[in-house]
């Protein structure tokens, strides 16, 4: 439960506050506030830091961590596949508050946007007490402890390339049971990322799908998820191969 | 409160106190912005969405402090008193408002969208509404309300919303072009020649309560603010089955701010059945306010009243309960075998058939020797189905507030469908007489049967009696899922004999039903399953056998449809498969057998609930089924089923398309039992107060009742001011259930209005010097045949103040000996991805004979929203448990209900018939939309893929598994 609230005006102050063991960073707050917990925590709200915005230098697109999902959906600079995935991650009333930094912070197993960012090879910039580092999103999802004591300031993705996404869900806008995103960069290298097959969105070698051991839940058994994963993977891979 | 924030709310700066953890919703509501509504704490219902700097955001998941320094807009800022914002007007005009609980959020969504995009597409509008869940309208009318106002604001002609009359197809030939100019929301009516002309009845009038709902005025239970109110919280069982060995409440009582802790140790043990039904409540009486045993995860253990919600929650955590955990059983078939854990072993429970085998009831009925029917059959088919558990999930959860009034009477304001039943049922539990209790039902944010229950009123009543203070209890979303009521799961087996011509020779329906931990509604829901499951089709001999089992799942109760959706899923799938097996057309086979006007409903006398003469077999008195089937086939383009290139599109090799059909037949009220009363009186200006005990859940029943009164006394709908319902103020009514309000309460209103009309005519006859019998009433006046008239205002002023003074008023009530069935034809169009099993629903069409629709707009809304709820039943909603009986998906999202941005196309067609027994020819419409969607969806999957599945819902893995086996 939040007992103190800070809205730092400078990144350094935010980093210092975030280093406290009882600190919780608030971006949009849509995940943090939905589960207040019982232990006292100190909220560090990033809204006053200028971390929002989408820009491109022609080679890559840089998205500030406080950029709302709704702004990504609307942005002509963001790749259209990612815009659609940002739209699918949360309904309008949440998307207007939720941010890309918060989406990375949740490391949600079923986030379509995260899966897309993985396939695009997103690089995340982290500001810590001593230094600013960049880490591939994949490393953060493999070990979310990397985020401890740091603040995500931006995410960068390549602006060229070709991408495709597909999913299976109970209804068209439901969180997918399994989803797949393929991205082919300008050099023709293809990355396949999937959600619903592991505790986090993961990069999958197309010929190793059979090795996956997805967790079961009531929406899909492990066996079903594995089977559907190969169907969806071949569809998205075919689409980036054909260049559709 | 530890901090202050400054918000600009609707243009004015407000400095508000709050705690850092409080949500923006909590703080706005506390500051008096009642339009910001509670749907859950986790943001997914959108009922609390507000504009923050012009963006629509769920204020449940935004801290108030996050909003410090920002601009907030709520619906309160939109309209000045006496005026309406054009967006609000569009919601009213299109019939987009049912309960109105989430309407303010939708209106804000529209405002934000149109500010950014004056020319939105339908997809843009659906996306703008995607975060606001709606359980009532099916989103069709809200989406078109926004498109309408966008068009008006662009200076364009908006879509027509007037009733569109369609030509009858039965007996007609040649092409019809009457569908060409249809708009999505024009109510479609197929008129019938024998319906007399009316002025107000039959018009798509806007709802009488629409203005306050569009404006977000305080109108719901949660909006009642009484000084000194304590907050109640309930401790729920973490075990599916356990004995409570002891409760230590010392620490909870010692916590400052705690005013009462109640449990079995300090509350008197009075047995009852919680279903809100007529006196005497059906057996068994197997509940007490607080028991020393718990029977499902979510069962009540104790209740606390404290100064704040936080203190109450902390106190709940301090209650130390020692449980002796017992083995549990969840499946209805496992529960009734020897050796299963005995769920009700208490010596004082009353009225269960065989509690030592968890057998609550064993129901039997037959119309002869069904084995003889099978013996003469050409072929006999047997098929077993399993239907699962779902929840009503109104966006407004259960909420009740109790308080002593100045006369020391207990006033309970409650979101209930059954205020009169609650008053009678709660009195013995509280140990005070009925006359000392008053129940007020304000507006309700959806009910669907879950509020046909005396569910939490005893808790707030006990707590107010003990503390002397007002006490409020509002369930959280998770509590609403696990601790309120649900739909009964059943295992259903049909066995049917068919002769060589496709005529039924014998039909048997066997059910094992799961009534969970308590028997509330367990008898009557299952009776309706039998009644509906064995009434649609003629058959010389029928047999019904139903075992109702206790288990340790959360409690099933009343849910719109009340046993019929279960039965008709099984029946309509069974009939479809028999047709396929004998090589007959699926509709033709049903047509050979379905009931027509004059056919007996022969099993009804044995499966009735009311006081009926068992020797009188009711017959079908009106049916528009044939017309409904033809209209639906045309609307859904049924012929495409024969087009191979449509069914298997060449450019999408993994897709198969299909269309499915199901017929539905429902009832209209419980004959010989459901009773409604009405009172009508004239005011000085010739307007009328109509007082009814009937409980509008958002369905529009208040409006329909006003239309009926207005028709009779010759005024317009808005000259009739409706008040419903309050046990001190309004006549008795059983409440909103069993599709009874229009038919039963409507007839009571009609009779009261006829008496008032007679009193007016008597006076007008003197004034006009003509015989009362020749006077006609219309345009707010009484008219002589020669064209002279006297206004109702003149009559009112004269009778109230001047000559031969008396209050023109009348009371009436009504019980019906019959229950004329509405009929419907349901169609579902789908696509199946055969590689993944994913089913995408493209279109739902229902053509329904509800007699004469009193209000075609609200009737269409009932069908649209009902079909979408029913789609959830068939497609994606399910309550899922872990092995210990704990629900794993007690939140929207995991418990999936359809959103605005994924809705299939919807179409409702109203086929008129003149039902002589109903008010102005009306039958019921509220429940029948729940009956046909699941079987039609299943039959569509069979049409598309050949795969025949007998369990719902049709989730991707279930369909995929069936495809693998095929
Ligand atoms: C009703 C609802 C529906 C939803 N539907 C879906 C869905 O369908 N699919 C889906 O995938 N998700 C869904 N979500 C989840 C939603 O997408 C996330 O809540 C959102 O992306 C989180 O963003 P936020 O900015 O609000 O994060 P916050 O709640 O503010 O933060 C989330 C986490 O990230 C941390 N964090 C935030 N910003 C930073 C930063 N800059 N640096 C370091 N750490 C940071 C926080 O400390 C916290 O741990 C839904 C959420 C809600 C409430
Ligand atoms: S207003 Fe839509 S669910 Fe009630």
Describe the protein in words.
The complex is a heterodimer of chains A (244) and B (966). Helix content of chain A is 29%, strand content 25%. By secondary structure, chain A is α+β, with helices and mostly antiparallel strands. Chain A has three domains: 2-45, no CATH class; 54-158, Uridine Diphospho-n-acetylenolpyruvylglucosamine Reductase, domain 3 (2-Layer Sandwich), CATH 3.30.465; 162-242, CO dehydrogenase flavoprotein, C-terminal domain (Enolase-like, domain 1, 2-Layer Sandwich), CATH 3.30.390. Chain A has a five-stranded antiparallel sheet. Chain A has a four-stranded antiparallel sheet with strand order 9-10-11-12, sandwiched between helices. In chain A, strands 1-3-2 form a three-stranded parallel sheet, covered by helices on one side. In chain A, a hairpin with a 3-residue loop joins β4 (54-56) and β5. Chain A is globular and about 50 Å long. Chain B has 966 residues and is an alpha+beta fold. In chain B, strands 10-12-8-19-16-17-18 form a seven-stranded mixed sheet, with helices on both faces. The longest helix of chain B is centred in the last third of the chain and has 28 residues, at 741-768. Chain B is globular and about 80 Å long. Classes of the chains: A alpha+beta (244), B alpha+beta (966). Flavin-adenine dinucleotide sits between chains A (24-32, 34, 46, 65, 89-90, 94, 97-99, 101-103, 105-106, 108, 110-111, 147, 151-152, 175) and B (42-44, 61, 893).
Give a brief outline of the structure.
The complex is a heterodimer of chains A (244) and B (966). Helix content of chain A is 29%, strand content 25%.
How large is the share of residues in beta strands of chain B?
A: 15-25%
Q: If you consult CATH, what is the topology of the largest domain in chain A?
A: Uridine Diphospho-n-acetylenolpyruvylglucosamine Reductase, domain 3
Number of domains of chain A: 3
How is the main sheet of chain B built? Answer: 7 strands, mixed
- Helix and strand composition category of chain B: alpha+beta
